[in-house]
Amino acid sequence: MRATQKLMKVFVTRRIPEDGLRVLTESGICKIQQWDSDEPVPKEELLKRMSEVHGLYCMLTDKIDSEILQAAGPSLKVISTMSVGFDHLSLGEIKNRGIRVGYTPDVLTDATAELTVALLLATSRRLIEGTEEVKNGGWTSWKPQWMCGYGLAGSTVGIVGLGRIGLAVAQRLKPFGVKRFLYTGRQPRPEAAAKINGEYVPLHELAEESNFIVVSCSFSSETKGMFNKDLFSKMKKTAIFINTSRGAVVNQGDLYEALTTGQIAAAGLDVTDPEPLPTDHPLLSLKNCVILPHVGSATYATRNMMSVVTANNLLAGLKGELMPSELKL
Ligand code: NDP
Ligand code: DGY
Description:
This protein is of the alpha/beta class. It contains 12 helices and 12 strands. It has a 7-stranded parallel sheet with strand order 8-7-6-9-10-11-12, sandwiched between helices. β9 (212-215), α10 (229-234) and β10 (240-243) form a beta-alpha-beta unit. α1 (18-27) packs parallel to α12 (300-319), α2 packs parallel to α3 (66-72) and α5 (109-124) crosses α7. Bound molecules: NADPH dihydro-nicotinamide-adenine-dinucleotide phosphate and (2R)-2,3-dihydroxypropanoic acid (DGY).
């Protein structure tokens, strides 16, 4: 870049993996400011830092709403989020302002699908409860009817949202001997479904028929609170409910009731509403509910790749070029 050209101002809302930061620093086209912490930037601080920013490198924990966009003003050309989910971005206003958006599909699919399978098995085979029993002396001997759970062989698995992650989960579950895959979404996905012999069914039918229900849909006003009292009451008493999508697709009060009254057998959640879940939340008192701290994509390699894709999206947006992964608005 010629010395006469002005550097573009970029704000990075968190400490990020070195690889991603290096892509930005070595580009030579931007002046980087960063919130140098592993914890989110407070909103007041973010508002201050947005002034005259051209590019924003953000996380799913940064709510980019009209106040933030207003604070940035017309200089803001690109928002690049280090996530595939984009429910934290006010897309309507972003579009109206002509701002481009980058995100990170594909690079996190394998890691998230793996974690989903791990959570499903931990929940259905009661792994966390079992290790607790080993530590607290509850393990007194091998007992014929103790610590039994539910197996995948011969089961019906329902996938809510047969997208990138939903399909990758189903493909990983298939070798366990799953008998039937059901799926639902806004429309049939014949190409993806063919890979797992999946049958497209309405949500209520999926709820009624499945032994395992895996939620891997995106979050929107349509999916908000989708898993409620009515739907839990349709599920089998032996059903295992797994959610790695977004916490707010579930009505957590209704889930608590379903888990404590035996409406369903168990739940595994990688995502909650809010995050973090308060440590005195009722769901945390239940043995049949396994809760993880939103770690679906948390492998070193995946987070590195996500940081690099986010950086490359941002740079391409600043230069007015094609992004590696641009969200179509
Ligand atoms: P995709 O866009 O590939 O898949 C999203 C799926 O959601 C699509 O199959 C879509 O199906 C479905 N969907 C959308 N609206 C509805 C609806 N109303 N009812 C049922 N299904 C619906 O995204 P990814 O698979 O890459 O990611 C999915 C989500 O997983 C992300 O949006 C994010 O929230 C979450 N995620 C969580 C992670 C974690 O750490 N726990 C890690 C990564 C992602 P159709 O279009 O057919 O309706
Ligand atoms: C995402 O990318 O949307 C996940 O929730 C975190 O990787």
